[in-house]
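User: I'm preparing a small set of examples for a lab meeting where we compare how different chains pack in three dimensions. I only have the primary sequence for this one, and I'd like the structure in token form so I can line it up with the others. Please keep the answer compact; I'll paste it straight into my notes.
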Amino acid sequence: MNIETFLTSTQITEDDIKDRTVIVIDVFRTSTTIVEALSNGARAIVPVPDMEEAGKVAANLDPAGYLLGGERDGSKIEGYHLGNSPFEYDRATVTGKTIILNTTNGTRTITQVAAGHSVVIGGFVNAGVVVQYAKERNRDVTIVCSGWKNRPSLEDTLCAGLFAHELWDGDYPDTSPDATYMALSLYRRDKSTLARPLNASNHARRLKALGLGKDIDKCIGLDTCPLIPIYRDSRIENLAAA
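Assistant: Understood. Below is the structure token output for the 242-residue chain.
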């Protein structure tokens, strides 16, 4: 299995994802929020790259059937129902709802990779089932990290390394692509103390400064929610229910 890794989505092209299984990562916090919303009964997530697109999607839906969720620079967008904290997406709030989600990095990345053969959203919280899904597809894999404003992020890179480690069953070929080797090497160095670098990452510090430190623990819990969010036809749904 060939595993290509992009530490940001800035330079990704259709050729990089065509006929491949694509795993999109945004550890803090879009991946975790999507998993949490779907596990609590949201009908679907519609990821959008910006506020304009969010408004267009909302205009075509029954106001009683959707919620606007999202953030800019970590803070809830003014006028939206929800921000991007997974704790906001509880069962009482999201059951039966379509969530129009608009975040600084993650949703933009998701919309860029629609041409992949299959596109799933991954993070620490659902790593095990996403790895198993990718293995069962028996295709080459492209891991796309959302990063932060076109820059690599430590948390996404470490998570990409975890996926590569598990997809290659703890080993890797001498011919592994450079970015995958980088992510895997970083993960293998830090895997026994992952919480420390994750909590020290730039984005973790941003969240703490906003009073959102509890989100960090939620987002770095390993295999806490075995759900596979799959992106197709402009919507993200729980694979088990799709």
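A couple of notes for your slides: Strands lie at 3-6, 21-25, 44-48, 66-72, 75-76, 98-102, 118-122, 141-145, 229-232, 235-238. The chain is about 35% helix and 20% strand.

User: Perfect, thanks.
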